[in-house]
Design a protein that fits this description.
The protein has 609 residues and is of the alpha/beta class. Helices cover 64% and strands 6% of the residues. Strands 3-2-1-4-5 form a 5-stranded parallel β-sheet, with helices on both faces. Helix 6 runs antiparallel to helix 13, helix 6 packs across helix 19 and helix 12 runs antiparallel to helix 13. The model has no long low-confidence stretch (mean pLDDT 82).
């Protein structure tokens, strides 16, 4: 029943060779990976006005030069991440850049910051969208947390069904939001040009403002830079693009930058011209739409698409988090379970982890995650700054053609990013001090995981000078499931050959490449034991192994001999060590208990640590 329910919710499993059909085209990728960045247009301009409002409405004209500064930084980031996409086409973004050019710890700081940032992205975006829903329907206000949890669960489920499925569904609201804001900008500019818009609601650019300080302007600039969150997501998700992936990713990134620049600058300019002031009761977008259209159907269309894009901004996290987790897990800094593809060829463990962590935050903060926004912005600009610095060192080291221009772009970007981080820590220390705790804690956890994997690999490494020699032999069919060449497998083979002359090892491979590599390694090992390989198109172990064992049991029954299955298994006392290794051996044993006339022997290997 559970299997049928899973098939109903997620869909039928896909074979590994179907992966090339699950890649995103540019149109879908733009929607699925840009939703976070584009949604920031709904609150980025308002963040600027909130800071300027502490002086007076006369200071609102400063939003224009501040917006220009934000656009300059956006252009620098787009150019920089285009270079990162071509330099690191396997994805990983800031993590890969910082790790390779600055050192492992800087890479882990960037990777850890982004992982936490993606969790915050989901929690903050869904909570903001939920607020928009409950504002429209006040009767739902007592159920804010439940609605937010339901939305996260739905987005998680959509992503578990596959990237192309979620992109096909979620692309429509993203493009509707873009369309809505384009209509707002065109209509607003048309009213200005035709004289229908008021000319007295705003102060002239250059009007002196008493008490204004450079520090306040920097604070407003850093707040406006919240509109740049999500820019890095495309560089983390390059493998999700159709070939040629780097070129398509770079093109999509450029398109996103252009759309974001047009929407952001248009909304900032119209908010200034119409004299929109931030209010605790109504958003800047709502006031602007009402000023241009009145409270008619177009106003509600803008509000509806804004609410949708705020919720769907979470999907950027679901697209980028699993791939970043995969890169960290591949380097043994996160559990290896994050490298496994699920039934629908997505990294399901990363998707589920992100969903659960986001729900946890929503519950803890009771759906009111506004206080996390500064922390969320810091989590973005730490990787921004490190990636810019990493590229600076890369150009100085390699000095490719036209490297001086590339160096200048990254140097400018690094200086601006570090300036913004300094402003955040000076002006909003009470809200961002947590980053000084969670970043070192996350890096410490990464190192603990890596240290464990290195220790285990050292203990499981075989001595190349030792060959698995044949011992006493008796009549018995012995099967040894193996996942690699380790000390545990070596001991299992010794035991198998001591009790039978018919010992067979079986390897379940998820790809033809891994099977061929295992055959070569096994042949070079010279065990004297036949290796049988089984291709698992759906990336499972238990079912293909079970089918193989049942076929071998029938062969054993025909010859009148017994059959023994030897399970290599290494043991550890620490619960988190067991979690890291995802001990599917226990599930296999549970399956084998249902097979008749099969004796099961576990060859244990106790880890030292």
């Amino acid at each position: 029943m559970l299997s049928k329910l899973k098939r109903l919710l997620i869909g039928k499993p896909l074979q590994s060779n179907e992966l090339h059909n699950r890649k995103l085209n540019n149109l879908k990728a733009l929607a699925i990976l840009s939703s976070d960045a584009l949604s920031s247009v709904a609150y980025g301009p308002e963040q600027i006005l909130l800071v300027l409002a502490t002086m007076s409405v006369l200071a609102f004209w400063y939003s224009i030069p501040i917006a220009v500064g934000v656009l300059i930084l956006l252009a620098v980031l787009i150019l920089s991440y285009r270079q990162i996409i071509y330099a690191y086409p396997s994805g990983g973004g800031a993590y890969m850049v910082a790790k390779e050019n600055l050192g492992t710890n800087y890479g882990l700081i960037a990777g850890g910051s982004l992982l936490v940032d993606y969790i915050l992205t989901v929690a903050v975006s869904v909570s903001a969208g939920t607020d928009a829903i409950t504002s429209a329907f006040p009767v739902l206000h007592p159920y804010t947390v439940q609605i937010a949890i339901l939305l996260v669960a739905l987005i998680t489920l959509l992503n578990l069904r596959g990237l192309t499925e979620s992109a096909s569904i979620l692309a429509y609201p993203v493009y509707l939001f873009v369309l809505a804001l384009v209509i707002v900008i065109i209509a607003g500019i048309f009213q200005i040009l035709t004289g229908h818009a008021t000319t007295t609601a705003h102060t002239a650019i250059g009007t002196p403002v008493m008490g204004i300080s450079f520090f306040l302007l920097l604070k407003a600039f850093s707040s406006g830079c919240s509109a740049l969150t999500g820019v890095e997501a495309i560089s983390n998700a390059i493998p999700n693009f159709k070939e040629p992936a780097p070129r398509n990713a770079a093109f999509t990134l450029t398109c996103m930058g252009i759309i974001l620049a047009v929407l952001f600058s248009g909304i900032v300019f119209l908010a200034y011209w119409y004299g929109i002031a931030p209010s605790g009761k109504e958003t800047v977008m709502s006031q602007l739409s009402a000023s241009i259209f009145g409270r008619d159907i177009m106003y509600y269309f803008v509000q509806a698409t804004t609410a949708l894009i705020l919720v769907l901004a979470a999907n950027t996290g679901f697209s980028a988090f699993p791939l970043l987790a995969y890169n960290l897990a591949k380097d043994k800094y996160m559990p290896r379970a994050f490298t496994a593809r699920g039934d629908r060829l997505g990294y399901s463990n990363g998707i589920i982890t992100l969903g659960m962590a986001s729900i946890f935050l929503i519950i803890i903060f009771k759906g009111k995650t506004e206080s996390l926004i500064p922390l969320y912005a810091v989590g973005v600009f730490i990787p921004f700054a490190l990636s810019q610095t990493g590229m600076i060192f890369k150009w100085l080291r390699t000095k490719p053609r036209s490297w001086g221009w590339k160096f200048s772009v990254n140097l400018l970007g690094a200086l601006i990013c570090y300036l913004i981080l300094a402003i955040f820590f000076v002006t909003k220390f009470g809200q961002v001090w947590l980053s000084l705790i969670f970043v070192p804690v996350v890096v410490f956890i990464f190192h603990q995981i890596h240290r464990h994997y290195v220790a285990v690999a050292e203990q499981l490494r075989i001595d190349d000078s030792v060959k698995v020699m044949s011992l006493a032999k008796t009549g018995n069919l012995v099967i040894i499931p193996v996942s690699g060449i380790t000390t545990v497998v070596e001991k299992s083979l010794l035991y198998a050959k001591s009790i039978s002359k018919d010992a067979v090892a079986v390897y379940i491979g998820y790809s033809h490449e891994s099977i061929e590599k295992m055959k070569r390694d096994w042949e070079a090992w010279e065990t004297g034991v036949q290796l049988i390989t089984v291709y698992s198109p759906y990336r499972g172990v238990i079912r293909p192994l079970g089918d193989f064992l049942e076929a071998m049991r029938e062969k054993a029954d025909q010859s009148g001999s017994a059959m023994t299955v030897i399970m290599p298994q290494f043991l550890t006392k620490k619960w988190w060590h067991r979690l890291l290794h995802n001990q599917s051996g226990l599930l296999i044993i549970a399956y084998l208990l249902k097979v008749k006339n099969v004796h099961i022997t576990i060859v244990p290997y106790q880890l030292k640590k």
